[in-house]
Design goal:
mainly alpha, two-stranded antiparallel ribbon, about 55% helix, flat, transmembrane helix, transmembrane, Conjugal_tfr_TrbD, T4SS_VirB3/TrbD/AvhB
Length: about 90
């Protein structure tokens, strides 16, 4: 027997199953929403500088938040969706 493991009950877990899905350092969903908003401003309203600025600031903030805590956006989304049961 290999240490304290039971034979046949150990399975390797691929690294991609444990890490969050990031797109250029930001969470995938946030990066897509941010890029879509910036593209709508830049192409749709013809505000190229504003669209680029929105993308840079939004993506920078998303990357910074994801580096501090990769699940911050999931926790924030759950916090908004679920009601507070214990009021202080």
């Amino acid at each position: 027997m290999a240490g304290d493991r039971a034979m046949g009950f150990a399975a390797p877990v691929h690294r991609a199953l444990c890490e969050p899905m990031l797109l250029a350092g930001a969470p995938r969903a946030i990066a897509l929403v941010n890029g879509t908003l910036a593209a709508a401003l830049g192409v749709g309203l013809r505000l190229w500088i504003v669209g680029l600025a929105v993308w840079l600031v939004g993506h920078g903030l998303a990357v910074w938040a994801a580096r501090r805590d990769p699940q911050i956006f999931d926790v924030g989304r759950r916090h908004v969706r679920l009601p507070a049961y214990l009021e202080v």
